[in-house]
Design goal:
The structure is a homodimer. Helix content of chain A is 27%, strand content 25%. By secondary structure, chain A is α/β, with parallel strands linked by helices. In chain A, the strands form 8 sheets. A 5-stranded parallel sheet of chain A has the order 3-2-1-7-18. In chain A, strands 9-16-10-11-12 form a 5-stranded parallel sheet, covered by helices on one side. In chain A, strands 22-23-26-25-24 form a 5-stranded antiparallel sheet, sandwiched between helices. In chain A, a hairpin with a 4-residue loop joins strand 4 (78-84) and strand 5. Chain A starts with a strand and ends in a 9-residue tail after the last helix. Chains A and B meet through helix 1, helix 3, helix 8, strand 21 and strand 22 of A and helix 1, helix 3, helix 8, strand 21 and strand 22 of B. Chains A, B: Residues 465-552 form the Rhodanese domain.
């Protein structure tokens, strides 16, 4: 069997080596249009920041090793320019020699990846304007900074790469402005959760500009750049990094007449076969099946790409591995001293869908509070009326992605919030609490579903009929001095039973505290005394996150 | 309803507060024979070590708060001495006043915990000999050390408390000898995994004595102690901590004629009801249902005790919560700079059962190797021939318990090694690899089950027929110089295809490398060339762990 693979990074290189392990006799040719294969694309920003010091570290598997150890015919700087599906022939251009030639195939695997989106912005091709996709781009940025002694940068786009680049350029000592067109960075999170990250990057000296985009780029005589934004402001800087999302590389697939799917990604079946049964596709260029919605989705992450590479190899050789196409979008990003992780659908996505959903917020500590160093993790979970988990988000300083990994695992089994209640997770004071953050999400969600804890949400407050409502903060007076929800009276929890007569039983009672725990106890007391009572999910801490806005010019 | 609770720590205090949240009217009396309730028992060793500095931090929920906030009638220094189940009456002795009295109950919840095992060792009651159970014990140890300027200690017992005490006393600057009667510390691990911890504690200056126990204790005129061991040696030290395991506090249950279970623990049904339907029991004193074996088991851990407390409250009030009794033994312990975690059954337990099992070892890195600071995690997983996961163990310096949490979650759903292959876990270079350690366990286990990677295990080597076998280390020559398995020839992986003629096809080929990855590739090559070939699971690194012995006297 002769197998040609287009693209030599996560999906392609993984498919190639797994193919060889499964079949010693197959002829395997790997075409990569760039200079490098199997490089550490997720590590590129950290090379810029100096965290990764050797460029060799970015090259995970050199071509020589693939040739020698796996007998894979690796051809770099070799772009597959055309597929002739009828003849099962591909056309290749060697960028080093300029020559073109053809190869036949029995099976073809496409792993072309996704390329940075480019918008038609005036001046976008000027020197000093970069995208970050491969090792060469990264080295070019590094050289440009050194050569031009660049000390300021505009990063356009607040996704994974934009945020990681902003952090790393800042850690390199630059003045950094991060410009994001929507009202939040890190789209996998909902805005109130992203607000924690906004605070963090501002506190680390990054100039954050939300709700505005780059409209024009101009070069000065000293090689510096003027960046004009859609809010009419201008920024003078030494260079610009464009990280405004990626788009599937579907050129070859389109040319070959393969069916496309959501976002012009390549459509594949559960075996990763495209609409042509001898052509397979994996990685950032394909549409996966979203594990929650069941719909086709674009999830451009390294984990799924690697698993797809393994899986497609087995399928090309006639095994039937069908579960690889499902993805949940488990992801994590480091943002200076914080960690943000998420899985599944967020509220923005759910609000647009027909899915009924509920949500809960908790702010538990990262490990036992009596052991030094515990920090709060802010968590949000979305779930269906039957308890099925739809998505979760967590932001904090330690043990953050661990919580999301566990929830992602429950979601793989179609699990519910009741399963989270019962999970038995490793506990010792330095690592966890006896009731883990994931348990707490389960407890609060189950309490909501069972009717044991009616809740309200911070964003509903403006709509609440003030006339017929009483807002009660059950925190202590010193805590309430630090802030509370509008028009709240203060009845500390431990005085509540003695002060029930202060509450009009004909009004709805809206209870809050700092994070929702004491509010829950107060709600239980009031419920059993016949009040119509609701607890603020996540307490005043969530209220603050929901109601934080960041001016476009930070201090 | 009048509910009496015996025992005010994890299970009892948790039950009391959940009862109140569910039922504002119930009369709830909490009896605790000690001085403190709801204290941080898992934190006690860290107070000795100075990591936790304030003794107030050890008192998680003071009695006043339980009284005020939860209207629980908390009675400390109050020992329940007898149950009269027919009359539904208990007898209580107040240790402060000396008086005895009775209380009636509608429902009784026993959460007496477990007490340190005491053996009939001569001199065991001498001054300077301690156990660690509660805050008072801990403060006594601290005072004794300060008053007597103790600078050396013998810790007897290598379980959680013994190991944590040895670490913390050592961090306080003492000469510490850790004595363990079996051939390993941390019984939840198998010995080869515990060997990593043995190395760690020896490297941190603890004198580790395995395979010997305390036979006699003698006091000197200067208050110092002579500890005689069963290996005939003697140790002169300033104090002794006995941590030789715990035993369920079943006195009350026995007196009341309640049925006992494994290890003389209290037998309960899925609602935590004892053999008397009005008496419930939770915590370290009860037998749980082991999630893997389905058998009654003693699992003394804070996580399950806390969940049981919540669950029993609901059941006492007539809800039917039935899943709380199942436990998997998920646990983690910090051992100086290492972390060890495990879940489910270990190989020692499986070898004694009728369960057929297989196993796999991997030594993946804690995060992407190209990002600084990655360290190896040594992992072992046990699984059934149908792929069901039976147990897992991990030892390393970071991201260790995270792996076990994920596996514990899969096990809760009865999941298999194939599920581990498909898990989509959060990945970014500082936190994980694109193929996570858990994925690697799944890949290797699935390869074994599918026959794609026949394996052998390090402990089988002495039994292998040398005459008809060839051992091949496919590492590089410099690596092989660092050590290899007995009688291995060296054929580096990248030369293997050219040197196949050196291997007698009539012999069995046993392949190894450093951790098993290159061995897998070599095995795939040789299998497809018709050889009868086996890969050493976990490679030479596992071989070393299996074959390490620690002399009873360390350097």
């Amino acid at each position: 069997m002769k197998i040609c693979i287009v693209g030599g990074v996560a999906g392609g290189a993984g498919a190639a080596t797994k193919l060889r392990r499964l079949d010693e006799q197959a002829e395997i040719i790997l075409f990569e249009k760039g200079e490098d294969i199997s490089y550490a694309n997720c590590g590129l920003p950290y090379y810029i920041g100096g965290e990764i010091k050797q460029k060799e570290a970015l090259l995970v598997t050199p071509p020589a090793l693939l040739r020698k150890r796996f007998r894979i015919d690796v051809r770099t700087s070799s772009e597959v320019t055309q597929i002739h599906p009828q003849e099962k022939v591909i056309q290749i251009r060697n960028h080093l020699t300029g020559e073109s030639y053809t190869e036949t195939y029995d099976k073809l695997v496409l792993s072309p990846g996704a390329s940075p989106k480019k918008f038609s912005i005036e001046g976008i091709d000027l020197p000093g304007i970069f995208t970050v996709r491969n090792v060469r781009n990264t080295l070019e940025i590094d050289e440009y900074i050194q050569k031009n002694q660049v000390n300021s940068c505009v990063v356009a786009g607040g996704g994974f790469i934009g945020v990681e680049m902003a952090e790393n350029l800042r850690l390199r000592g630059m003045e950094v402005t991060l410009v994001e067109f929507t009202n939040q960075i890190m789209a996998p999170l909902d805005r109130e959760m992203a607000n924690i990250l906004h605070q963090e990057i501002i506190s680390k000296g990054v100039n954050l500009k939300l709700g505005t985009g780059v409209s024009k780029l101009e070069s000065q005589s000293d090689h510096s750049l003027i960046v004009s934004l859609t809010d009419q402001s201008q920024i003078h800087c030494g260079m610009v990094v464009l990280a405004m999302g990626v788009t599937p590389e579907n050129g070859l697939a389109q040319q070959a007449g393969l069916k496309l799917s959501v976002g012009n990604s390549i459509q594949v079946n559960e075996f990763f076969q495209t609409s042509n049964p001898d052509i397979y596709a994996v990685g950032d260029a394909i549409a996966v099946t979203h594990g929650v919605s069941g719909e086709e989705a674009l999830i451009s992450l390294a984990g799924p790409a690697n698993r797809q590479g393994r899986s497609v190899a087995a399928n090309v050789l006639g095994q039937h591995q069908t579960n690889g196409k499902i993805a949940y979008g488990s992801s994590v990003v480091k943002v200076f001293d914080l960690i943000a992780a998420s899985v599944g659908l967020n509220e923005k996505q759910l609000a647009k869908s027909n899915q009924n959903y509920l949500k809960t917020y908790v702010h538990p500590f990262s490990h036992a509070t009596y052991y030094p160093g515990a920090t709060q993790i802010s968590m949000k979970m979305l779930f269906a009326p039957d308890g099925k988990i739809l998505g979760a988000q967590a932001v904090g300083a330690e043990n953050v992605e661990k919580q999301i990994d566990v929830i992602a695992t429950v979601m793989k089994f179609g699990g519910t919030v009741y399963d989270l209640e019962e999970l038995e997770l490793c506990y010792a004071p330095p690592f966890n609490s006896a009731k883990s953050p994931v348990n707490m999400l389960g407890f609060t969600a189950a309490n909501i579903l069972k009717g044991e804890m009616p809740v309200f949400y911070a964003e509903q407050i403006p709509q609440i009929d003030q006339e017929n409502s009483i807002f009660v903060d059950v925190s202590t007076p010193p805590e309430v001095l630090m802030g509370t929800i509008p028009n709240a009276i203060n009845i500390p929890l431990d005085e509540l039973r003695e002060r029930l007569s202060e509450l009009d039983p004909n009004k709805k009672i809206y209870v809050t505290c700092r994070v929702g725990l004491r509010g829950n106890i107060a709600t239980r007391i009031l419920l059993q005394h016949g009040f119509d009572v609701y607890n603020l999910s996540g307490g005043y801490k969530t209220y603050r996150l929901v109601n934080t806005t960041f001016s476009q010019e930070n201090p």
